[in-house]
Amino acid sequence: MSLSISVVLLLAIVAVIFLRNGAMKFSHGLVCLLLGFLLAGTDAAPTIHDGINSTAGLVSSLSP
């Protein structure tokens, strides 16, 4: 649960930075937001969730 909230918060911060710098327009952000909601309702959602969890586990296991 905390991982998904952290990922959402990170992506929201990146989107705000892109919007403020002009690298992404509001319409592009809206399309990305709608795509995320649509993907969450498909059969691909568990696969995406598992991929994010696997990537987070791999990153957390790395030692500097």
Model description:
The chain contains three helices and no strands. Helix content is 81%, strand content 0%. It comes from Streptomyces endophyticus. This is Transporter.
Reconstruct the topology from this structure.
Elements: H1 2-21, H2 26-40, H3 45-61
Features:
64 residues; flat; mainly alpha; 3 helices
Give a quick summary of the entry.
It is built from three helices and no strands. The protein has 64 residues and is mostly helical. It is flat and about 35 Å long.
Oligomer: single chain
Radius of gyration: 14 Å
Largest sheet: none
Round the mean pLDDT to the nearest integer and report it. Answer: 80
Query: Poorly predicted ranges (pLDDT <50, ≥5 residues)?
Result: none
**Beta content:** under 5%
DSSP strand tally: 0
Apparent shape:
flat
Helix/strand order: HHH
Secondary-structure-based class equals mainly alpha
Number of helices: 3
Euclidean distance between termini CA atoms: 26 Å
What proportion of the residues is helical, as a percent range?
over 70%
Protein name: Transporter
Organism: Streptomyces endophyticus
